[in-house]
Amino acid sequence: xxxxxxxxxxxxxxxxxxxxxxxxxxxxxxxxxxxxxxxxxxxxxxxxxxxxxxxxxxxxxxxxxxxxxxxxxxxxxxxxxxxxxxxxxxxxxxxxxxxxxxxxxxxxxxxxxxxxxxxxxxxxxxxxxxxxxxxxxxxxxxxxxxxxxxxxxxxxxxxxxxxxxxxxxxxxxxxxxxxxxxxxxxxxxxxxxxxxxxxxxxxxxxxxxxxxxxxxxxxxxxxxxxxxxxxxxxxxxxxxxxxxxxxxxxxxxxxxxxxxxxxxxxxxxxxxxxxxxxxxxxxxxxxxxxxxxxxxxxxxxxxxxxxxxxxxxxxxxxxxxxxxxxxxxxxxxxxxxxxxxxxxxxxxxxxxxxxxxxxxxxxxxxxxxxxxxxxxxxxxxxxxxxxx
Amino acid sequence: xxxxxxxxxxxxxxxxxxxxxxxxxxxxxxxxxxxxxxxxxxxxxxxxxxxxxxxxxxxxxxxxxxxxxxxxxxxxxxxxxxxxxxxxxxx
Lengths: 388, 91
Description:
The complex is a heterodimer of chains A (about 400) and B (about 90). Chain A is an alpha+beta fold and about 400 residues long. Chain A has 8 helices and 22 strands. Chain A has helices spanning about 1-5, 20-25, 50-60, 75-80, 85-100, 115-125, 140-150, 330-345; strands at about 10-15, 35-40, 40-45, 65-70, 105-110, 155-160, 165-170, 185-190, 195-200, 205, 210-215, 220, 225, 230-235, 235-255, 255-275, 275-280, 290-300, 310-325, 350-365, 365-380, 380-385. In chain A, the strands form 6 sheets. A 5-stranded antiparallel beta sheet of chain A has the order 11-9-15-21-20. A 4-stranded antiparallel beta sheet of chain A has the order 2-3-1-4. A 4-stranded antiparallel beta sheet of chain A has the order 10-12-8-22, with no helix packed on it. Chain B is mainly β and about 90 residues long. Chain B has a single domain, classed as Immunoglobulin-like, CATH 2.60.40. Chain B has helices spanning about 5-15, 20, and strands at about 25-30, 35-40, 40-45, 50-55, 60-70, 75-90. At the A-B interface, α2 and β2 of A face β3 and β5 of B.
């Protein structure tokens, strides 16, 4: 390697002058690499930096010489100096090799359960950290603080760089029980209903099974009046279940405006290298008017490497028109029942259905469904109160 | 009998290495493939089977096969090859 890097040059003298030349070299404290003899000539290989010294000594002692081959990196540069592309290529290679090892090429995220990796990356991006980040410039303390200040959902974060991979470990905030037991509360009714059961955890029971209550009525009191302790205030808690009536009304017009797809699909592609986007679409129209958009991002695999910071985003725009649609009565009724079932699912999420009545009728070019449901549901709700 | 120089006398009396106080050449032979010589002031002959080095008071003849010589600084040379004989002649 050393031989390749240092430039060398051959000095050729005749065989007759060999001893004289070497004698002069020795007397003048000059050094050489090698001496070879070939075809009645003596080849003295010297370092190029000593050439001027040899030249002046040989001229001084009138020794005839010629220069031969040149060796070394500098010689190759001189030989190929007209090949600008070669030098640019070598320069770019060195530059890319150096800088690519100083950039973040991958982010590994662990410890997340509620948030997806993409959401954590989004949080990091907002805090100023993403793929392609220049590693020596990262201030880890500042970054950690920024992330924690920006997101209440993350209680701890650690970022460690291993080579060009950033290992991000997060700890999400545990969902706190919203109930602060130190607050004074009453339990009141969310709906009108007929009390089925009262289960008191804390506080004083005000209603019993069989009572009829209205929305807002007190069910369990947080004010306890005792003879021994006097009046005291507590955090009332309990579960009160009651039979409740609910009404659902569905309205489906026979004539309505609906979205209909024309069949035309427009596509846009862009590539993401680290955190920079490169748009490859020729058209740059705004498709957002009367188009539904579906965006899909997937990693680009090059030569089998799937973990490169190179992603392709394909956005498809499905064109639609708003058209007036006329339905028959039967179609409207069918659609109305579909909507009714959806509403029932929503209403009965936390309730048990006891009975329901459904009434369907037609009026003013609309199909109506009235549904009365009688269900058993938890109606208790905690409300805070303050004491001076 | 060899004539004793002042340097030799001082070296013997005070037990000082002779090469430190006198202009005698100092040769170091490593096996039979390398011979390092200090105090060279010239070359008299340079062939692949014989090299004759000139020092201040001596001629050093090195005989062997495929001999080559490298120069360093301050009169130090290194002869490499298959060395078969090393002779010293007083000038």
